[in-house]
Amino acid sequence: MARMGGSKHLKRLAAPWFWPILRKEYKWVVKPSPGPHPIDRSLPLLVVIRDVLGLAETAREAKRIIFDGKVYIDGVVRKDYKFPVGVMDTISIPDIDFYARFVPYPVKCLWYVNIPKEEKSLKIVRVENKTTVNGGDIQLNLMDGRNIQIKVKDPTKPVEASNISTLDSLLIEVPSQNILQHIKLDVGKLAVVIHGRNVGRIGRIVSIDIKPGLKKRRSIVMLEDLQGHRFQTILDYIVVIGEDKPLITVAGI
Fold it and tell me: pLDDT tens digit string along 54-63?
């Protein structure tokens, strides 16, 4: 894993292994800005435009596309060429009628899948933390850095978000952040692996082994893919994406 450190620069040889860049032809590569995704699970927007999508041949051309406000990430114009694009982020370029979602992908770790225009405002996010804020409202901290605050009528009995737990998933609308559907982390649900050696694999949860004294995120989960092959990973490496089928377009399904 590449280290962010305090430097504003990043050598190509030190960049995350899955970035599709030439390692020895040039010395430096753009370093992602601090943002919604860590460096080892994201791609800088400039690299996305130039090296992933092939819409530019040089950094200068890629910057021009970005600075002109032609690129939307999760429905918001992004003019920062260092902006980190990560798991489940949607990218839209209306000028060329291009819509895609970045998803976990076998071998490549993070890649895009084309989506219909109707899905550009849909996103699945995992609940990383759930806290009570001043006034008794419930705040959900999500995997892409978002915070959704749920109004509570009676702070002594906060029933509004009582069924939402850590590591559950939400189908939200972006950029409004309206919650459209709640997907409970449970046996029988479909999940995608977002990290580790099984990255990109999709399977149905067969069992969750939560042992006393062990952090929930480190618990072992068994999944079964569409071919009937079983594999293991940890809870921290999966995101629930649906029940009988994914709620949104995901690579490999």
Answer: 999 999 999 9
Helix (H, G, I), strand (E, B) or coil at 222: strand
Dist CA 76 CA 113 (whole Å):
19
**In Å, how far are 21, 167, 209, 210 from 213, measured between CA atoms?**
42, 18, 12, 9
Q: Which residue has the tokens 């490496």?
A: 237
Q: Tokens for 132?
A: 């009570």
Q: What is the DSSP string of 71-93?
A: -EETTEE---TTPEEETT-EEEE
For residue 155 the two structure tokens come to 């702070």
What would the two tokens of residue 151 be?
């109004």
User: Can you name the residues that pair with 237 across neighbouring β-strands?
Assistant: none
Distances in Å between the Cα of 163 and the Cα atoms of 158, 174, 185 are: 10, 22, 11
Q: Could you count the other beta carbons within 10 Å of the beta carbon of residue 117?
A: 11
User: How many Å apart are CA 244 and CA 226, to the nearest integer?
Assistant: 12
What's the pLDDT tens digit per position in 190-236? 999 999 999 999 999 999 998 887 788 999 999 999 899 999 999 99
Contact criterion met (CB below 8 Å) for 53 and 45: no
| Integer Cα distance of 12 and 22 in angstroms | 8
Model-level pTM? 0.89
CA–CA gap between residue 253 and residue 71 (Å, rounded) = 26
Identify the structural domains of the chain with CATH numbers, from first to last. 10-119 (3.10.290.10), 122-183 (2.40.50.740), 190-242 (2.30.30.30)
Copy the structure tokens of residue 218: 């480190």
Q: Determine phi and psi for 130, rounding to 5 degrees.
A: -135, 120
Tell me the CA distances in angstroms from 171 to 5, 11, 46, 190, one per residue in order.
33, 37, 27, 14
